[in-house]
């Protein structure tokens, strides 16, 4: 476990601080963003009416709506699958590429190696998502802004479940491939493919972005329990498949 945490620390910290920088590139600039959109209306009312929803711009003046839409509904939400993929892709493939997996298996069972690596990456993923989910609450408290935080747990659950799915998908590729390039390419390809196919109504369920970005929360609907449970079951199945592949892989 200590080795896995040591290997993970730079990647996890880099992701966290990049996301932290992204948050502070958004949060302090609410007035600037709204002012810019309004200035477009002033300079060209026709342009504003065609490309920008005026009602949406007015909603952005509400701090809670601004945070939920710009942080959870766009920037953070869009990057949740990427965070999961970056954390998972080298877990096994780097050991295979460097030829160090054999040394690990001399000292530990395959189950223990798999659990240590998988759990360490998962711990980093959950920690990053939980901290980033509560960031708007902390920032609002420090800056004295009124923030309706009752929807944060729902957005956080959606991000955690969606992140777990893409972590599980990437873990399979990391176990299968013996270099670090193929797992990340395969995972990103799967993300793009499912997102594009999900634009088709019959295959809408493939587009996990709709779930992770909290579209149902914005539309005022209830939390999609069936979809949440389905993603958890698929993630659990993929983790099991990853272990079975690793357990029978010739090393």
Amount of helix: over 70%
Strand content: under 5%
Report the count of strand segments. 0
Report the mean per-residue pLDDT as an integer. 89
Q: How many separate helices? A: 13
Rg (C-alpha, Å): 21 Å
Q: Give the overall shape.
A: elongated
Please, how many domains? 1
Unreliable residue stretches: none
Distance between the termini: 21 Å
Largest sheet: none
Order of helices and strands: HHHHHHHHHHHHH
Which structural class matches the secondary elements? mainly alpha
Task: Give a brief outline of the structure.
This protein has 251 residues and is mainly alpha-helical. It has helices at residues 2-24, 30-43, 45-51, 54-59, 63-88, 90-98, 101-107, 110-143, 152-176, 181-197, 208-212, 215-218, 225-248.
Please tell me about this protein's structure.
The chain is an all-alpha fold and 251 residues long. The longest helix has 34 residues. It has one domain. It is elongated and about 70 Å long.
Give me some keywords for this one.
single chain, 251 residues, mainly alpha, transmembrane helix, membrane, ABC-type transporter activity, transmembrane, ABC transporter permease
What's the structural blueprint in terms of helices and strands?
Elements: H1 2-24, H2 30-43, H3 45-51, H4 54-59, H5 63-88, H6 90-98, H7 101-107, H8 110-143, H9 152-176, H10 181-197, H11 208-212, H12 215-218, H13 225-248
Helix pairs in contact: 1-5, 1-8, 2-3, 5-8, 5-9, 5-10, 6-9, 8-9, 9-10, 9-13
């Amino acid at each position: 476990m200590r080795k896995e945490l040591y290997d993970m620390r730079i990647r996890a910290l880099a992701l966290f601080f990049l996301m932290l920088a992204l948050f502070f590139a958004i949060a302090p600039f609410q007035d600037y963003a709204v002012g810019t959109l309004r200035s477009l209306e002033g300079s060209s009312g026709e342009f504003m009416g065609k490309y920008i929803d005026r009602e949406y711009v007015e909603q952005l003046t509400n701090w809670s709506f601004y945070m939920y839409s710009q942080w959870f509904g766009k920037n953070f939400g869009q990057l949740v699958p990427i965070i999961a993929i970056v954390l998972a892709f080298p877990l096994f493939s780097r050991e295979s590429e460097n030829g160090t997996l054999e040394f690990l298996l001399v000292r530990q069972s395959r189950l223990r190696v798999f659990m240590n690596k998988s759990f360490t990456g998962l711990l980093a993923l959950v920690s990053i998502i939980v901290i980033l989910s509560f960031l708007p609450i902390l920032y609002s408290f420090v800056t004295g802004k009124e923030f309706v935080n009752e929807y944060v747990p729902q957005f956080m659950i959606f991000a955690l479940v969606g992140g777990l799915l893409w972590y599980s998908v990437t873990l399979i590729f990391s176990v299968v491939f013996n270099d670090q390039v193929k797992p990340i390419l395969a995972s990103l390809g799967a993300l793009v493919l499912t997102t594009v196919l999900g634009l088709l109504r019959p295959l809408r369920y493939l587009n996990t972005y709709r779930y992770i970005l909290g579209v149902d929360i914005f539309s005022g609907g209830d939390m999609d329990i069936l979809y949440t449970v389905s993603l958890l079951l698929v993630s659990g199945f993929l983790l099991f498949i990853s272990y079975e592949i690793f357990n029978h892989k010739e090393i």
